[in-house]
Amino acid sequence: MNNLVILPILIPLITATLLLLIPKKVKLQKVISVISLTATTIAAMVLVHNVYMNGIQTLEIGSWRPPFGIVLVADMFAALLVLTGVIVSFTCVLFSFRNIGKDRENFFFYAFTQFLITGVMGAFLTGDLFNLFVFFEVMLMSSYALIVLGGTKIQLRESIKYLLVNIISSALFVIALAYLYGLVGTLNMADVSDKIAQSGQTDIVTIVAILFLIVFGLKGGIFPLYFWLPGSYQAPPYAITAIFGALLTKVGVYSIYRIFTLIFYHEPQITHQIIAALAIITILIGAIGAIAYWDVKKILIYNIVTAVGVIIYGISIATETGYAGGIYYLVHDMVIKGALFLLAGAMFTITGTDNIKKMGGLIKRHPLLGWMFFTACLALAGIPPLSGFVGKILLAQGGLEQEHYIFVAVMLFSSLLVLYSVMKIFMNCFFREEVLSPKEEKGTTKGLVYPSVILIALSAFLGLGAEFVYPYVFEAAETLMDPSIYIQAVLKE
Amino acid sequence: MKVNDLILQTTTTLLTFIILIFSVYLFFAGHYTPGGGFIGGLMTSAALVLLLLAFDRKTIQKALPFNYLSIAAVGLMISVITGVIALFFDVPFLTHTFGYVELPLLGETALTSTLPFDLGVYLVVVGVAMTIIQTIGESE
Questions:
Q1: In chain A, whose CA is at the least distance from the CA of B75?
Q2: pTM
């Protein structure tokens, strides 16, 4: 019993309800948001430390013993993602203070953001599959509201697509849960894993596993199921896209990791092979999209797709090194995608356009922004000593050890394409001759750069302080490697 | 032409009370028989919708001057707080208690802390349903 586990879910939830009560007091809303996010960050830090010192922390909600009640489980993997998720959403909220505008602030923007954080944290921490579905819905409902908030034409069009895709995937999720419940008669993750280990993973269980892969693939944007992502993420303003790009797809990725390491790990020659093939195509598709466009937002969105592919492949490697690489890259990618979208948001504020060809020479008047963007690009591509390097080197090492040569080659090649795509933004927007005179600039970057500075500092810490971070990641990978640790912590047999 | 809906309005005033009482009955019945916060809240909003159908919006707003959005938020708050209280007794979140209490009129009554939780659900349902209906009704 440890009520600390629920704090990262509870604090944003209480804040969101408070913010619903004071819709017109925007100043007060900002203050409350900052206080609550600070508290959540501290709670998440304490949680990570606690898990590191004392092993997996569980909370049996309502004092009902699992598998009968809902149990919240904070293993190292979940705790690390909770901490990263809170920090990234904190910076996105700080960014939106200056950027999101009165129209949206007056219509519960901060409340929706807090609900979104509630859903994401809940999805990371839950130990029950149906509860996972509920937290997915909490997250998705808030994202529907955020994507359409403001009501511009493109937002309306894209939110319809986004809604349709997610409703269908949610329905598939329920169907998959129903099949699984029909097969094993329980929905507690540890208990399901235990039951399947006892009865063996029959063909029908493998089919359900693939159905789950389709569901989470739709949420996370892997190869044939990523089609909704580029359009939907382009519609809302940058502050919202940043929070989406950093958190939403990653929840899908987290769920794939969780179920294929904890529950459906008995038939890797089928499920993990499919994941491997899809991951490689996802990497390539993302890289192709990233080099094809001359639109800042589109390029960054396709980079999300590439990163999802790289992270997912960690499951197929299925060694401690592979998992550690996947987790490290996941944490890195949340941080750096947040930073990149926030920096691009600042660029958009200055120029009023996303078209690379209409920008130029920004470095003269905005050197800090420019060099921050440059650092973020290097981190994204995986240049040492920044954070992307450690994850990729671990994945490459794991891949070579297990003789996944195609993956290693594709990943390294994709790094080159990713570097090219973001350097295209940097070279064209920040160098060349100036396009905008000081008078033509649409806004100032006052207060817009420091949130991304926090994220880039964090990224540098993840890279330079890898010695410090690695034990945590390694412990997370160890738990993924051996499901019995998780099962014992939950069921206490 | 002025529409005369005397019959509708008279029956509505009568029926609304019956529906409201039935919704409250459903709400309290939830622990032992079918019913509960969700269906109770939905039934209450059904009574309010009947009022909206029989009278115009302004009259209803004058008679029931609630901000339904705040009602939903308060309901959510009540539900969360019933869970949070458990934290102060050093038991897991949402742990509920149960006991028999001697009440003045009702005698020995079984009371449980899930009742305030359900009250929260009830308020959220009423608040959300009425917000949806009123917002759609108001937009041109």
A1: A17
A2: 0.94
